[in-house]
Amino acid sequence: MLPSATWSRAGSRGGRCHSGFPAWARVYAFFRRWREHGLIAEFHDRLRGAAREREGREAEPTAGITDAQSVRAAATVPAASRRGKKVPGRKRRIVTDTPGLLVAVAVTAANIGDRDAAAGLLMRLRRLHRDSTLVWADGGWTGSLVGWCRDKLALTLKIVKCTDDMAGFVVLPRRWVAERTFAWLMNSRRLARDYETLPATSEAMIRWSMVTG
């Protein structure tokens, strides 16, 4: 069943699977069951911990980088247009560890602002990964969110943004790590557009792509 789910992750057309695999509906039923029971998240997190330990790190990260990505949604997906843009879609927000492995993910409608959605993402991060106490973010996460993270979550939110003396293309410290993770994810054809009706399924597909990609 695992190879069949990987085939689904690749974005086979028309709900079809390879002739040697079970029917698409059965494959998706297993995937949904794994998602609902938290098995995909557990499988992903165990592999991430093992990869970190192979590099001589602790299994649980203590610091991370967060970023967001807007993606067009399929016509069948409930979505909203981002302010100033007419393209209907969703927004993916992730937290990675310092090497770029996925730690937390949240998918929302595209018109939900970063600061509004950040609270839920960072609360999820602190609930599931208590050792994570430092997160680097871009300038869109400034304002009261920094103090809220400090007071409510015991989390240091460090803002990395361009300064007036920067000209042309500049690689900003830390932020490029999460941007590279998004580039890895976009190698999955299933993630080139959001096809999932439920945000939870979209989040599970992102984790699955980190495992199989």
Number of distinct helices: 7
Q: Assembly type of the shown chains?
A: single chain
Task: Could you tell me the CATH topology label of the domain at 60-199.
Answer: Nucleotidyltransferase, domain 5
The CATH class label of the domain at 60-199 is: Alpha Beta
What's the pLDDT, averaged over the residues? 84
Q: Distance between termini?
A: 17 Å
Number of strands: 6
What sort of overall outline do the alpha carbons produce when their principal axes are compared? globular
**Low-confidence spans: pLDDT under 50, at least 5 residues?**
1-11
Category from helices, strands and their pairing: alpha/beta
Q: Which superfamily, in CATH terms, is the homologous superfamily of the domain at 60-199?
A: Ribonuclease H-like superfamily/Ribonuclease H
Computed Rg: 18 Å
CATH architecture of the domain at 60-199: 2-Layer Sandwich
H/E element sequence: HHHEEEEHEHEHH
Report the helical percentage. 40-55%
Main sheet characteristics: 6 strands, mixed
